[in-house]
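Translate sequence into structure tokens.
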Amino acid sequence: MSEQLVALFTDTLGGHLSGELVCFIISLFPILELRGGLLAASPAFLDVPMGLALPLCIIGNLLPIPFVLLFIEKILIWMEHWKPTQGVALWLRRKAEKNKGKIQQYEFWGLVIFVGIPLPGTGAWTGSLVAALLHLPRKKAFLACTLGVLMAAAIMTVLSYGILGGLFG
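Result follows.
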């Protein structure tokens, strides 16, 4: 699914914006995040140089995290009280509830690993959501998410530029 979303973004925005900006924008979005941004930057899609794509995708993925940590609880409470958004709010709470055991068990390092392993349903957005709903200290949660994003960046750089680069380069 991620590859299809990346293809949709690159096809839609690629002709209107620079490849660098497309990668940055993709990295801002939940679900896609840095993984999608680096995949879009790879030789298979936009062929943005790795040295340029990497910092753009890291910054793009980290930018929303303080806002998630600060405001998600209030936003969810508001969404739960407004009928059209109740389903989404409950889905987000269930997603956080499902993942909280992994993070609670290992605390700081659990959050780092949860954010850093590039699997569907993990990442900085979900990690921040769970951290906020568990009321983890914000500075500690942001640091864990940052380390996780850097870990994901290392893994995805190897996948996007190493493996895909070898196939499409």
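Note: DSSP finds eight helices and no strands in the chain.
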